[in-house]
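Subject: design request, 159 residues
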């Protein structure tokens, strides 16, 4: 019984010393931000001078309309794009032009309800004509292995 008490006391002392040493090791370490980055290395808001210029309601941060004004000025070239920001079009390098949907002449031909856009049934008619060869495939459209529903692309393996 006396041996168990001595071993228990020794274990408690060893655990306390270990915790003390670990606490000292972490005391001088900077706080880690997202993904193990140190302070100031994670995504931050706009610089203070930009906030001061665009913060119309003077609350110290940019709300949706203030951010829209900032982004409009960035796109217009009035404000320099932030370093590390997204390139033109908001997509990575080599992404190519953003797809804008069917050309106006296709929309005019298949837009049965004349609302200026193709709904599900109008798109189905367009796709049927594309598959039948009546309408040429759009340039930059889906090719083999480019994703989507019909064959190829990423996703589950075919069985």
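Subject: RE: design request

Done. Sequence follows.
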């Amino acid at each position: 019984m006396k041996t168990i008490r001595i071993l228990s006391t020794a274990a408690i002392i060893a655990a306390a010393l270990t915790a003390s040493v670990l606490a000292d090791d972490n005391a001088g370490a900077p706080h880690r931000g997202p993904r193990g980055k140190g302070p100031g290395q994670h995504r931050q808001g706009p610089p203070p001078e930009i906030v001061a210029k665009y913060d119309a309601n003077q609350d110290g941060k940019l709300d949706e309309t203030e951010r829209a004004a900032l982004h409009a000025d960035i796109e217009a070239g009035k404000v320099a794009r932030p370093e590390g920001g997204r390139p033109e079009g908001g997509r990575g390098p080599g992404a190519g032009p953003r797809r804008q949907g069917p050309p106006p002449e296709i929309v005019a031909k298949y837009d049965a309800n004349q609302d200026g856009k193709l709904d599900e049934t109008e798109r189905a008619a367009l796709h049927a004509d594309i598959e039948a060869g009546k309408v040429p495939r759009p340039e930059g459209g889906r090719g083999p292995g480019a994703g989507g529903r019909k064959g190829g692309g990423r996703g589950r393996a075919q069985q």
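The longest helix spans residues 2-27.
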